[in-house]
Amino acid sequence: MRRFGCVVASFSALRLFLAQRHFLEIETPVLSRASQGSGANPRITPCDVSRHQHQIMIGQYLKSLRMSGISRTFEIKRSFRTEDAPPPDNEFIILEACQTYIDYLDTMDLVRQLVQQASCAIYDKKAVTRQSGKGDWEASEEWQVLTVHTAVAAALQCPITVDTSYSELLSACKRVGIEAPPMASRDQLVMCAFKRLVEPATQYPTFYIDYPVSSSPTTRQHRLHSRLAERWGLVAFGVEIATSSSEVTDPIEYQGRLPRQQSYAASKSNSDATEVNDEFLLFLQYGIPPRASFQLSIHHLLDVLTSFPAKDT
User: Fold this and answer.
1) Which of 3, 139, 180, 271 has the fewest Cβ atoms within 10 Å of its own Cβ atom?
2) Are the C-beta atoms of 136 and 203 separated by less than 8 Å?
3) SS3 of 186-223
4) Confidence class of residue 268 from pLDDT cuts 50, 70 and 90?
């Protein structure tokens, strides 16, 4: 009963927080004719006349609503993937929100307050009793912000920047026992080290910002460095809770990114994720204002805030 109460309290708190900030909750289709994810494998559902895919990410429908002048929207919905785990572990409850005229740096404070609101709803305070190597976690404390390359450099114990050569990075990875995937690019090596060394070792909530641009094919290019993307991931206790990005709104630039997205999907052996959503491209051509979005995994959030797996509910 305690588990169920935590889930209900957190859902109510998340909805209330966003409603108080004038976000409009919407509902979008579960099935789509084109893949909605950047690299994950979609779950296929055959229909009488065509093949449909369960949504992986729900963001493109939210982004398309910018056309109607709605500036703040969110949705809480199940997301379906086929890789890594059998059902029901490949189903997730995702909260995705989108707002115009902000960027990925603005969403950091929004998500931090959102997590604190959920913590207050469960514990009636911002302190989370979660044992770690450094003691309990206080959700109201300041959260660390690090660039991906800074975190990888600390994990590899050698200087790593966007200008580090492939051979130097490969050598550093091998020294700590990380085997490079076949035909891995420099950016893929960085992300491999990040996933293997940085995420599992992260205890208290940390925003990792400025990902390699090739790992974020539909994210806006960094304003100061062309080889980085304006994206962050929030990690706590070895789990990625949320991600956010400033988004590409230029239709010409977006179409130019499609080969990169297809290459990224192909590197994950996912041919379905390379399909182009023509409707979304049409919306971009009509014109959409600058915006940023974030995705919050409610399952992972509850795993962090409580001492039991949320999926047990």
Assistant:
1) 271
2) no
3) HHHHHHHHHHHHHHHHCCCCEEEEEEEHHHCCCECECC
4) low
Helix (H), strand (E) at residue 244 = strand 239-246
Cβ(291)–Cβ(66) under 8 Å?
A: yes
What DSSP line would sit under 84-144, residue for residue? SS-TTTTEEEEEEEEEET--HHHHHHHHHHHHHHHHHHHHSSSEE----TT--EETTSPPE
Looking at residue 67, the DSSP 8-state letter turns out to be G
197 vs 212: CA distance, rounded Å? 17
228-236 and 239-246: which strand pairing?
antiparallel
Q: What is the pLDDT of residues 160-177, one digit of tens each?
A: 999 999 989 989 998 988
2-142+258-312 CATH fold: BirA Bifunctional Protein; domain 2 (3.30.930)
What pLDDT score was predicted for residue 133? 47
Place of tokens 């052996």: 269
12, pLDDT greater than 50:
yes
For the chain, the domains span 2-142+258-312, 144-196
pTM metric for this prediction: 0.81
Summarize pLDDT for 110-165 with one digit per residue, the tens: 999 999 888 888 877 655 555 554 456 666 677 899 999 999 999 999 999 999 99
Measured in residues, the chain has a length of 313
Residues 6+ away with beta carbon under 8 Å from 75: 25, 26, 27, 28, 58, 61, 62, 95, 96, 97
